[in-house]
Design a protein that fits this description.
Structural class: alpha/beta
Shape: extended
Order of helices and strands: HEHEHHHEEEHEEHHHH
Radius of gyration: 33 Å
Low-confidence stretches: 35-50
Number of helices: 10
Strand content: 5-15%
Helix content: 25-40%
Length: 376
């Protein structure tokens, strides 16, 4: 019963933290001494700062703000001058001159303007042939193809709708209302069809090219997250679907991030997506990744290892957290060399991380904990 009560208390603490606590997994506990070298607290990417003595001073407290107007924004200047009849000194009657100027800036917003672009294509024929020949050639002027055939949508309109929906989070029904306020009748069904057609005709080719470039990298990251899709054929609304994310690693000069929606979590989906890739795949502990082709080497994520110890520590009462085995597990995962270049990072990991990992696994193997607890 004591063990069961303890388990319930852990669940309550974790639930309260998820509901009311911060999402960051930073720790404030003092780091346990896992390193025997002098450089244990030395940041290898930052040189030692010089110590400079400064005199005590006082300054007026000002309100800090991050608001800033860009310097390259077009500027409209309005000068306010006295009328000529008022430019007379009130004391002697002499003429007044400008001795200085006071400046105040305002941010003026000009609402978006919609216009109809009417394309008129001229069709030409030969007057002489019309009179003298039984055949008259017809020549048409060049005209750009529409972004969607049979539609009055322009590239700018589709880009605006997509930006509002996917970047600003404005659903199509709200955009429909906004168009209507400006006297333009465009239904959400029409906008939805425009987005789908534009993706099929223009964006899908770009996506496939990005996928090819993604395969050229040696290291990739992958993760999947649950999404809920309403009215999906053959599936209940409460069933799980998955959005898979594939991206380049930090050393890539040009970052690529691609999403791939799938109705389930089967390993055949990453297998199909990465069919032309060979190299290292950075992932969590999902077993599906370990069923991929032999040309893909799956490498585990220490952030996920650390998170389990962090949650086990957060499940404990505050007074017991700093001295717990969970806190020690967090500390084992803390050593970071993110600011170093890959070559120096490898050297430091061989020198410092490798022996710590060996010690870490020995320590884990000797822990005597209940399997159903968070630490277990």
């Amino acid at each position: 019963m004591e063990q069961q009560v303890q388990w319930f208390m852990e669940q309550i603490r974790l639930s309260k933290r998820k509901q009311f606590g911060v999402s960051s997994e930073q720790t404030k506990i003092e780091q346990l001494n896992l390193f025997n070298e002098d450089e244990e607290t030395h940041n290898l990417a930052v040189s030692e700062p010089q110590r400079i003595e400064v005199k005590t001073h006082y300054r007026k407290r000002t309100r800090l703000t991050t608001d800033k107007l860009p310097a390259d924004l077009p500027m409209e200047v309005i000068e306010h001058k006295l009328p000529e009849k008022d430019s007379i000194c009130p004391d002697c009657g002499g003429e007044l001159h400008t001795m200085g100027k006071e400046t105040r800036d305002e941010l003026k917003v000009i609402p978006a303007k919609a216009v109809i672009v009417r394309h008129i294509r001229h069709v030409y024929s030969c007057r002489n042939c019309e009179k003298t020949s039984d055949h008259t050639p017809i020549v048409k002027a060049e005209i750009p193809e529409p972004v969607i055939k049979g539609s009055f949508a322009s590239p700018e309109t589709i880009a605006h709708i997509a930006t509002q929906k996917f970047m600003m989070g404005s659903p199509l029904y709200r955009q429909e209302q906004e168009w209507k306020q400006n006297g333009i009748e465009i239904s959400r069904q029409t906008m939805s069809n425009w987005l789908i057609k534009a993706c099929e005709d223009w964006l899908e080719a770009i996506y496939e090219e990005m996928k090819k470039r993604l395969w050229e990298h040696e290291v990739l990251h992958v993760d999947e997250t649950v999404v809920q899709v309403l009215k999906e054929p053959g599936k209940a609304a409460q069933s799980k679907s998955y959005m898979w994310l594939y991206r380049t690693s930090g050393e890539a000069k040009h970052q690529i991030i691609l999403y791939d929606y799938q109705p389930d979590r089967k390993h055949i989906h990453p297998e199909e997506f990465l069919k032309e890739f060979s190299g290292y795949l950075h992932a969590d502990g999902y077993n599906g990744y370990y069923k991929l082709s032999e040309k893909i080497t799956v490498i585990g994520c220490w952030a996920h290892v650390r998170r389990k110890f962090f949650e086990a520590m957060e499940a404990l009462p505050k007074e017991k957290q700093a001295t717990s085995n969970a806190a020690k597990g967090v500390t084992y995962c803390e050593k970071q060399f993110a600011l170093l270049c890959p070559e120096n990072r490898l050297k430091e990991r061989e020198k410092q991380s490798k022996p710590i990992i060996g010690e870490f696994y020995d320590w884990v193997g000797k822990l005597n904990v209940l399997p159903k607890t968070h630490l277990g």
